[in-house]
Amino acid sequence: MSPDTHCPRLFYALWPDAATRAALAAWQARLEGKPVRPDKLHLTLAFLGQRPAGDLSALLDILAQLPAHPMPLLFDHASHFTKLALAWAALAQPSLALLDLRTACMQRLAEQGLAPRFEHDRFTPHVTLARQAPPPAIGDFAPIAWLADELVLVESLKSSGDYRILASRKLIHAA
pTM of the prediction? Predict the structure, then answer.
């Protein structure tokens, strides 16, 4: 099989640090369903789907050029996607920085002719915590403050269900 026939499933995501990952994993204990492995917890910025290997260079350039700085995110409750049976950590108020990053990402993808064909118009930032899950019981979840400072391009490996980070970028404050 030539490299051009391999079409990896890709997505851009904000990748949690160890402390945030541990706090999100603690929420999972209060949810029913099949928990997502803690090493797979992330906030998807844009799901790109299957892409020819030839797109990778442009996708790496977009990752490197996105204007972004560390952004505070506050997860304060659990929510649910009924049709998909997913329980997830939710933000009562997504930060403007997060929404701006998502907009910039989608614009750059469109400029390169790489816009996802099945991306939803409405962006619901979340971290999936459990699959095959009923709606979470109403309850107190200790808020999780995350200073999101790592943006990644990830390949979803269909054979194993694992994720492989293809490229990572630390978000830093402008000097």
Answer: 0.90
